[in-house]
From TrEMBL:
Top-rank taxon: Bacteria
Keywords for the protein's UniProt record, in alphabetical order: Glycosyltransferase, Transferase
Coiled-coil positions: none
Membrane-spanning segments: none
InterPro entries (UniProt xref): Glyco_trans_4-like_N (IPR028098)
MF terms (GO), sorted A to Z: glycosyltransferase activity
Record-linked Gene3D superfamilies: Glycogen Phosphorylase B (3.40.50.2000)
Designated name of the protein: Glycosyl transferase family 1
Limits of the Glycosyltransferase subfamily 4-like N-terminal domain: 28-173
Amino acid sequence: MLSPGVRKPLSRTVRFGVLGTYPPAQCGMATFTSALTGALSAQGSEVSIVRVADGSSTSDDTVIGELLNGSPQSSAACVEMLNQSQVAVIQHEDGLYGGAHGDELLAILGALQVPSIVIAHGVSKNPAPHQRWVLERMAATSDRMVVMSEAARERLCGEYGVDRKKVAMIPRGATLPTQPRLKRSSRPTILTCGLLGPGKGIERVIDALPSLLNVPGRPCYHVVGRTHPEVLASQGESYRMGLVERARSNGVADSVSFDDRYFTTAALTALMQTAAVIVLPYDSKDQVTSGVLVDAVASGRPVVATAFPHAVELLRDGAGIVVPHDDPEALSSALRRVLTQPRLAGSMAAEARQLAPAMAWPVVADAYVTLAAGVRRERQMRG
């Protein structure tokens, strides 16, 4: 029996209630939610999911309900379901929730009786006034904010004025390779993965490819990923077809291939290992979190990326080469160096393998359990 005034120690396993997108939704957050759920469950915690409704259905018994944006009744039911957990984990990115800049989420956060952790999948550098206010209110209302890069933490604390004690940095998480590397193709492969749509910068690589055809082995460019559902709904496959035409007009149609199949995480990890170099040629100069970047580094392959904040941070010690957004020659030169200098490519891959263990999902899940235990303890201490 505990002495008077001595609180019972908290368990290392936690009942999590998670709000966000979830498969069969096809987006980076849904993939993240699924992977984190699996890692937490493997660690011994219990996870229940409240999906943001997207018109699809699921028979996954981890899903206990849905949030229908724009419905006060659905928001109230969401709060009730999350309050059955010990810690609520709320995933956020602009545009996910109802209201102006997702401000319907604030009512849900404010009504929670259990500790809450908000995972910020993005932190805009130049937010609209109301967008800024929403993020600031989330930080004030939640017990802790989680970001996935130091760049995001600096932005949240510096530009939004959020108390540093309220912000935790936990890497995004990745599936580390467990199988021997598959045999590479006879032609060196430059690989880009992820949902396809304007802003991914695929054009940059297609435009650089003619200058690389004299590299031994004649490298090919492989673009893997379905068209983003929102792009598909509004534009169909016009963006992909435009890229195919661009490759044809550049005279590299036989060196560019597109694969719109769905790849499991394990299959995508194996595919990344076959690449000579993984390239992230994104247009964004604002992106503080990239799941594809984390997966690329975790695969142990050299990376070339444009200078978005997460890439600058993660590749700074040599796991990749960062190039300016508007410098085609720099991109071409970086790809050529990796493809023609085996020692450089080897050192980049070795550095990536050094970084990878800290990104493994079991490590990330343990960090969330530790954080959850901490916020529960703080609530307990406040009585």
